[in-house]
UniProtKB/TrEMBL annotation, chain A:
GO cellular component terms given for this protein: periplasmic space
Keywords from the named record: Signal
UniProt superkingdom: Bacteria
Pfam annotation, one family: SBP_bac_8
Lineage, top ranks: Bacteria, Pseudomonadati, Pseudomonadota, Alphaproteobacteria, Rhodobacterales
InterPro entries assigned to the protein according to its UniProt record, in alphabetical order: Bact_solute-bd_prot1, SBP
Family of this protein: Belongs to the bacterial solute-binding protein 1 family.
Official protein name in the record: Extracellular solute-binding protein
Transmembrane regions: none
Originating species: Mangrovicoccus algicola
Leader peptide range in chain numbering: 1-31
Subcellular location: Periplasm
Chief place of localization: periplasm
Automatic annotation (TrEMBL), chain B:
Domain of life: Bacteria
Signal peptide: none
Similarity field: Belongs to the binding-protein-dependent transport system permease family.
Stated name of the protein: Sugar ABC transporter permease
Compartment list: Cell membrane
Entry keyword Cell membrane: yes
């Protein structure tokens, strides 16, 4: 018969190992996963968002952020399906407007954030008119009611210009009016320089240029008409401003104001060609600051005012909103998600964005010593003056779920001369009226 | 006599086909049934589907975009089926006449495009066609043919043929290999006899080679027609159906309806009609393109 004896040291070692293992398991179980989806896809943006998320994890060692990066289109494509399947993010960026945020609110897929707005004081950092863009009422009215998101970055669609290219062509700066802008385009064309960078194969440079021209023809004192249109309260796209913009787009296209073969060039390629000094102007948003600051000759300004318009509107607002999805089932998860969002929209985060060359929606902390690029300084000036004049406009595609497709399809026809400006505006308005009728 | 276990009654053998049957049902048959069911509903992918009966089908037959997609698909068939078939047959004749070692090298080289993923091919050709720095337009400009350097994928007239030519490049090697196999099957004495009788190359091709290759022609047509009606990846990576629907095909339209506009019911209707088209066209090929012996 075998005799068994208790080996105390071995038992002690075993107990210690077990305790250590159990402790490790317990700490692993205590760590909380927080799936986060975002659309920051340019190199500079990715660097900043990674830094911000790393900082959050350092401050919250019990939280594991699971970061998923999607392009703007891919995010729109997959977000709703993923959340409805129960396998999506707890915190996500979501595009404002009827197609994405509106649809998700209607299906109770986003958590109201008004409580957190008061708790963290986000409304002290961002104006009400900016926060209206994340509001949906119970009866599906955009721009009012409960708030479902908040953004990190401010956005202004304005005019980028290459100072060196313009000076070499003999264009006098600064451009004081829209008429000066048109004259500068003429001068550039006369000198054999491509006046405007454009690429229509991918991206939305065409939409941004057209909307910037149209909204520059609206005085901020008459903004209610545009607000009503975008927030689905009614109105018509058949306006002089839209018609004028459509006429100019067609003229610029057919008379060679854009890159040769711009119809087959992607938006990102067009931006790179502009950085390389291949055109005098480019109209797009401040989200390109990080990429464009590599060329010190590139500057930014809002679209200048046409004659008779005192304070022109500028397309813009904020970037996609941070939101909490219905996958945050319990209060603790919702609170954690809100804490993460608070970190992303804080003045401290604004400082990191600004250091990366991007225009933050929140003000920089007092006494901030962050070194701003020349481009960002111009962007902040534009943003401050436009906000002061309540002249931040809207993206036209927010107005209906189908508007982006309608604009993309018909703008190509307009610019190829296959559709008259009047037909174009009629089709855009028909899309809008059909949406109003179906609401 | 020793009998196989497979000679038993069918219900006993069911167990052998069950794994395959389950996979087929789970991944093919049930999704098809679901799509059919979905096509009778209006569904945004989030809330409960709403029964609309034949509403989607009625709407589809009055939908100008759908007919544009069908017309584009019909034009693309020329590039997916007819041109690769002609090119493949011509090359097969030429390659079959060279020495075996060289034949292997040339055949491998010409078959190469077909082994590449078509999405990768789409991305590569999108770059080749780029008007700003793509080598095609750069080359045209370098040899003084700048007037031909059009924005291939952004031009309303050229976008569809430009995408189609990539399909020709993708499929001609596949067609050639099938025809080479067919040519090796033919008895050389028939051609010798024809030559002795004084038949010229054109006559030999029209009266002997082509009729004898009809089984291969039928296979090539069936496979390329299915590929053309299924076309999605090349177009998605190169133009996404643009500019302004100039390269829109039913599958891209179905994708846009479902994933961009959240109209899954209507998108399923497009899918069902597309599937019916595949069956109809292939039935026509089966029915009307038969070798004389009915093989």
């Amino acid at each position: 018969m075998t005799k068994y004896s208790i080996c105390l040291p071995a038992l002690r070692r075993g107990a210690v190992s077990f305790g250590l293992g159990a402790g490790l398991l317990a700490s692993a179980a205590a760590a909380e996963d927080l799936p986060v989806w975002h659309n920051y896809s340019y190199d500079g943006e990715i660097e900043v968002i990674k830094a911000l998320m790393d900082r959050f994890e350092e401050a919250h060692p019990e939280v594991d952020l699971i970061r998923t990066q999607r392009s703007f289109d891919d995010l729109a494509l997959t977000l709703r399906l993923a959340v409805s399947a129960g396998d999506g993010p707890v915190v996500t960026k979501v595009n404002q407007g009827a197609k994405d945020m509106g649809a998700m609110v209607a299906e109770d897929m986003l958590i109201p954030m008004d409580g957190y707005i008061s708790e963290y004081g986000w409304d002290e950092q961002q104006s009400q008119s900016l926060m209206d863009r994340d509001r949906w009422s119970e009866d599906g009215q955009f721009g009012e009611g409960t708030t479902y998101g908040i953004s990190s970055l401010a956005e202004v669609v304005g005019v980028y210009y290459n100072e060196a290219v313009l000076e070499e062509a003999g264009v006098a700066l600064p451009l004081e009016s829209f008429e000066d802008f048109l004259a500068a385009l003429e001068t550039l064309k006369g000198e054999g320089v491509t006046p405007m960078a454009m690429g229509m194969a991918t991206g939305h440079l065409g939409l941004h240029l057209m909307a910037a021209v149209a909204q520059a023809h609206i005085d901020a004192s008459h903004r209610a008409e545009l607000d009503d249109l975008i927030y689905g309260r009614g109105g018509s796209w058949k306006t002089d401003a839209n018609l004028k913009a459509a006429e100019l787009m067609q003229t610029w296209s057919t008379e060679g104001y854009f890159f040769d073969g711009y119809q087959g060039i992607g938006g990102t390629d067009a931006v790179q060609l502009f950085v390389a000094g291949q055109a005098g102007f480019m109209t797009s948003g401040t989200w390109y600051f990080g990429d464009l600051q590599s060329n010190p000759d590139i500057h930014f300004m809002p679209m200048p005012a046409p004659e008779g318009v005192e304070q022109p509107m500028a397309v813009g607002g904020v970037d996609l909103a941070w939101a909490i999805t219905s996958l945050a089932e319990d209060e603790a998860t919702q609170d954690l998600a809100a804490e993460f969002i608070n970190d992303m929209v804080s003045p401290a985060a604004a400082e990191v964005w600004a250091a990366g060359g991007y225009l933050p929606a929140a003000p920089l902390p007092e006494g901030s010593e962050v070194e701003l690029s020349a481009l960002l300084t111009e962007g902040i000036e534009a943003w401050t003056s436009l906000n002061a004049a309540d002249a931040i406009g809207h993206y036209p595609d927010w107005s209906t779920p189908t508007m982006l497709t309608t604009i993309d399809d018909n703008m190509a026809l307009l610019m190829a001369g296959r559709q008259s400006p009047e037909e174009y505006v009629d089709i855009i308005d028909a899309d809008y009226q059909a949406y109003l009728a179906a609401k | 006599m020793k009998t196989s276990v497979l000679d038993g009654p069918p219900r006993r053998n069911l167990v052998f086909v069950l794994p395959g049957l389950i996979l087929y049902c789970a991944f093919i048959f049930l999704p098809i049934l679901s799509a059919v069911g979905l096509s009778f509903t209006s569904w945004n992918g989030l809330s409960a589907p709403r029964w609309v009966g034949l509403g989607n089908y009625i709407q589809l037959f009055g939908d100008a975009r759908f007919f544009t997609a069908l017309k584009n698909n019909a034009i693309l068939m020329l590039f997916y089926c007819v041109l690769p078939l002609i090119l493949g047959m011509g090359l097969a004749s030429a390659v079959s006449a060279i020495r075996p070692r060289e034949r292997l090298a040339v055949r491998t080289l010409l078959f190469m495009p077909y082994i590449m993923p078509s999405a990768v091919i789409g991305v590569v050709w999108q770059w080749l066609y780029n008007p700003a720095f793509g080598p095609i337009n750069q080359g045209l400009k370098a040899i003084g043919l700048g007037v031909l350097a059009v924005p291939w994928l952004g031009d309303f007239n050229w976008a569809l043929p430009a995408v189609g030519m990539v399909a020709v490049w993708y499929y001609f090697g596949f067609c050639m290999v099938i025809f080479l196999t067919g040519l090796q099957r033919l008895d050389p004495s028939i051609f010798e006899a024809a030559r002795i009788d004084g038949a010229g190359p054109a006559y030999v091709f029209r009266r002997i080679t082509f009729p004898l290759l009809l089984p291969e022609v039928r296979i090539v047509l069936l496979l390329t027609i299915i590929a053309s009606i299924k076309s999605f990846d090349l177009i998605f990576t190169m133009t996404r159906g643009g500019p302004a629907n100039a390269t829109l095909v039913p599958n891209i339209y179905m994708y846009d309806l479902g994933f961009q506009l959240s109209r899954y019911g209507y998108g399923a209707t497009v899918a069902i009609i597309g599937a019916i088209l595949v069956f109809a066209v292939n039935y026509a090929v089966h029915r009307f393109l038969k070798p004389r012996d009915g093989a």
